[in-house]
Amino acid sequence: MTGFHWYGPGNNWFIKPATLKLPEVPGKWMEPSFRNRSFFGTGGLDFGTIQPYDPGNLYQQKWYDWKRRNRFNADFRNQGHTGQAFYLANKDLLDAHPEWFSGESGKLNGRIRIDQPAAVRAYKDWIRKIYNAATGEFIALGVEPEDGRGGADDPLPARMPAVKNHADKWWWLANEVARDYPENDKHIVITALAYGDGRYNALAPSFPLRKNVYPIIIPYAFQQAYQPDEMVKVWAKRVNGRLGIYDYWNITEWSRGMPQFNIYTIQPKLQFWNKNKIDGVNLETTDAAGPVGHVLWLAGQLQWDVNKNFEQLYDQYLDDCFGKAGPAMRNMFDRWSKNYQDAGEVSLSLNDLKYASEKVAKESPEANRILEMKAYVHFMKLYYEHDGTQESKNRLFNYLYRIHHLMLVQTAAFVGQNYILPLDKGNIVPDGKNIKPVTHDEIERQFKKDLQVARPVYQLSAFNFDLDKVKYVEPIVNTVWRFGGYQCVFYFKAPLSGKISIDVGAETETPFVFSDEDQVLIREDVGKSNKDYTETIMGRSWGMKKFQIPVEKGKRYRLQTSYGFARVKMNTPGIVLFKNPGAEDFDNYAYPVQYFYVPKSATEIIYYDAFPGGQNEGGFLAAPDGKHIQREPTGDKNTYRVPVQPAYRGKLWTANFGHPSWKFKNIPNITSLQKFEYHE
User: Fold this and answer.
1) Phi-psi region of 222 (alpha: psi -120 to 50; beta: other; left: phi over 0)
2) Which residues lie closer than 8 Å to 583 by C-beta, 6 or more apart?
3) Alpha-carbon gap, residue 396 to 256, rounded angstroms
4) Which pLDDT belongs to residue 1?
5) How far apart are CA 135 and CA 289, in angstroms?
6) Does this model's pTM top 0.70?
7) Quick check: 63 and 309 in contact, CB under 8 A?
8) CB-side exposure of 135: number of CA atoms within 13 Å?
């Protein structure tokens, strides 16, 4: 309110007003939209040993300072797993009572039998000791079981009919612990996570939770019980108090420090959570100003007031940090959000930074912030050029150490975790001795060198694929969809209201999930043990189950099978099933040819292919007349270009790769197993 802003953790990102004007603050308490607001970077900020280039770990301290200045704070945090800690703290007692557990593994992981009153009392007594030793105004008592709940060493109670599954078991225990503490005391909660593989572990309990039980749900990963938003709504209806949520935004382990988050999802998510009893946001991310500095500043502002105008906040960030270069920087940040180009991003970002530099005065604060982003993009370049050798890895890490003081990439995570190859002899990294922080002049010289060797910038299509403009031509040929070896995810927009006919099966077994955008409509294992008929194609047999599913015209639906060499037959004419290439789906054996639409404006197709020579006689794109179009290397690793002649634009092409590790980069990454028409 006073005009002081810390847009990033580095000193260069602090902005103060030209003149101090004290605002008129209303005489009342200000309440944030979310009581608990926290984030941490995967891999942490502790090195374990002193690093010569940062002996006092100022990186960690400056990130903590930045969090405080941007009002990140949490009264109640996730406490982590407790089962093994329970055993270690009570070893003699638990060793003396094997009847409280199902085997040695159950005991070591603290998976008590909740139908044993003495075991429950021992657990509650241990939690009471933790409470008695706790200091501070707010206390969160964790009752989260170890991973592996629902396994052979985690039995359900025999004589407790209210406990129907393993989610019920552990939330029953949370309720039981919560009985020992005042239900309306806002300074203490009993907390655990709602997540886990299988269809039961993330379920909301079948009974009410006490008001002082504080679940932290994980809807968007590591759960199979619900559609993500469905999980939020179901849990909101089940709790008597409030909820926390745990989500993954550009985490270091998955992103390797590259940009992988869409800022335009921040406000819709936060508003949805806020309306559904969530008062705690726990984000796992990366403590790195390069890929997520702007993300975390925007998130912090909106977690404090979820109804702030997003565009005004974004413009404020760009104007204050980059001045007249704001539009060029926005172009780069928006592409990172909406259409990140992997290795191709280096040339595109270099180009944006070049234009940005031309808009501001040299050595100005704006120019210096752009300079830091130039240093980050060079890290991106080294990352994408890494060839898996120790020499290449050393080059990457030595540069990482030199930019460490800029807090652009989470150095501690890279040093401490097995993120970068080679790893055959462990995670061997340079010792960091004799490292000198990179200077502004060195960054600028390197930037000019990077520009000289940058690949030609290709054009990203502005075309948006509209399902309403799709016209059905023919069904999927019966021999095409045969070997769903992994997760096969397809979607469609219903062209009619009524029941549609789908047959789903597998050579062995596969879980079939059918959902709309709000909830799971069907979840059923199908295959040899649950079938209506057997279908034999080319000497292979599938157990097939028939489904009649009500749909509503204009709604979008999603279907998924997982493993088992699954197959799907859409029997209702008029429906075109689409997918997004790039994830493992069908087995390489008889990997299906796919159809895709090339926009009228496209002069070339840029795509990624992990296998340059193709596999299973594939590795090519075919024009509408069937002609195989020769690919050309773009210069970026595993990225290729195919020219599109005027006669081939605005038409349907085919992609034949023989494997799933490919995707389109500059046109919509959408394909189908059946021919269709598109009217642009």
Assistant:
1) left
2) 486, 487, 489, 660
3) 12
4) 61
5) 33
6) yes
7) no
8) 0
What pLDDT, in 10s, does the model give residues 386-434? Answer: 999 999 999 999 999 999 999 999 999 999 999 999 999 999 999 999 9
Query: Under 8 Å CB-to-CB from 404, ≥6 apart: which residues?
Result: 53, 54, 59, 411, 437
Rounded distance, CA 672 to CA 677, Å?
11
Checking 416-422 for CB contacts under 8 A at 24+ apart, the result is 416/43, 416/44, 416/46, 416/47, 416/48, 417/42, 417/43, 417/252, 417/253, 419/43, 419/252, 419/253, 419/256, 420/256, 420/386, 420/393, 420/396, 421/386, 421/388, 421/393, 422/388, 422/389, 422/390, 422/393
Q: 275: which 2 tokens?
A: 């309306």
Angstrom distance (rounded) from CA 498 to CA 179:
49
Strand 509-516 vs strand 278-285: parallel, antiparallel, or unpaired?
A: unpaired
Residue in 287, 269, 216, 214 with CA at minimum distance from that of residue 245: 216
Question: Is 443 exposed, middle or buried (CB count within 10 Å of its CB: 0-12, 13-18, 19+)?
Answer: buried
Which one, of 180, 173, 167, 171, lies nearest residue 117 by Cα? 173
* CA distance linking residue 559 with residue 561, whole number of Å: 7
Rg over CA atoms, the chain: 28
- Token readout for 52 is 């010569």
Task: Identify the DSSP state of 81.
Answer: B
**Cα–Cα distance, 396 to 387 (Å, whole number):** 11
Structure tokens at 674: 């059946």
Q: Is the peptide bond before 422 cis (omega within 30 degrees of 0)?
A: yes
Predicted confidence (pLDDT) per residue in 495-551, tens digit: 999 999 999 999 999 999 999 998 999 999 999 999 999 999 999 999 999 999 999
HEC profile for 261-304?
CCHHHHHHHHHHHHHCCEEEEEEEECCCHHHHHHHHHHHHHHHH
* pLDDT number for residue 392: 98
Query: How far apart, in whole angstroms, are the C-alpha atoms of residue 115 and residue 122?
Result: 13
CA distance 378 to 514: 44
- Residues 197, 202, 207, 213: is their CA dihedral positive or negative? positive
Secondary structure class of 355 (helix, strand, coil): helix
Candidates 611, 669, 604; CA nearest to 630 is 604
The SS3 call for residue 537 is strand
- Which amino acid, 170? W
Residues of the chain below pLDDT 70: 1, 23, 25
Q: Specify whether the CB–CB gap between 101 and 93 falls below 8 A.
A: no
Which of 127, 81, 79, 123 has the alpha carbon at shortest distance from 101?
Answer: 123
First and final CA of the chain: distance in angstroms?
Answer: 48
Q: Closest by alpha carbon to 453, among 635, 268, 238? A: 635
Q: Which H helix or E strand runs over 367?
A: helix 365-385
Query: What token pair was written down for 215?
Result: 């679940």
Helix (H) / strand (E) element for 379: namely helix 365-385
Q: Which residues pair with 537 in a beta bridge?
A: 540
Count of beta carbons in the 10 Å neighbourhood of residue 436: 9
- Identity of the residue numbered 22: L
Q: For the beta carbon of residue 512, count every other beta carbon within 10 angstroms.
A: 24
pLDDT tens digits, residue range 579-632? 999 999 999 989 999 999 999 999 999 999 998 777 777 789 999 999 999 999
Q: What distance in Å separates the CA atoms of residue 135 and residue 439, rounded to the nearest whole number?
A: 45
What residues pair up with 526 in beta bridges, in sequence order?
A: 510
Sign of CA dihedral 118, 124, 127, 133: negative
